[in-house]
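User: Some background: our group keeps a shared notebook of sequences we're curious about, and every so often someone picks one and asks for a predicted structure to add to the entry. Today it's my turn. The entry only has the sequence so far, pasted here. Could you supply the structure so I can complete it?
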Amino acid sequence: MIVIDTSLALQWVLPEEDSTRADSYLETAKIASPDILIVEVANVLAKKVRADNFTLAEAHQALAFVRSSFSQLEPSEPLVARAMELSAQLGHALYDCVFLACAERLGGRLATRDAPFIKRVTERGFSHLLEPGP
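Assistant: Of course. Here's the predicted structure to add to the notebook entry:
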């Protein structure tokens, strides 16, 4: 199971030059994420609406696309205790650690674009929970 974080999921609806890796996960049958991803994606899309870069209808459509792209969304609340432990061990924000805890719980790997997070996870001995980069 591959767990996708917000940084990758946003590339599905806000394409950038290096979106190829993110798009490749859309072809994967089993991708998951903690349900906090929906709130995080909606927050970015709402900012785009406020900045007049998206209409509200486009933001709703983009959010629906992201939601429908996952084979499963895991409840975030049961992941919080482990995410707190990981946050303390890694010295990193809890939000990102929820995704790492999700990968750990599902016996999968986390796919992320967050370079500082990848560095911390790797340096602290948790690289086995990361999906290899491109």
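Suggested note for the entry: The chain has one domain: 2-129. The beta strands are 2-4, 31-34, 72-74, 109-111.
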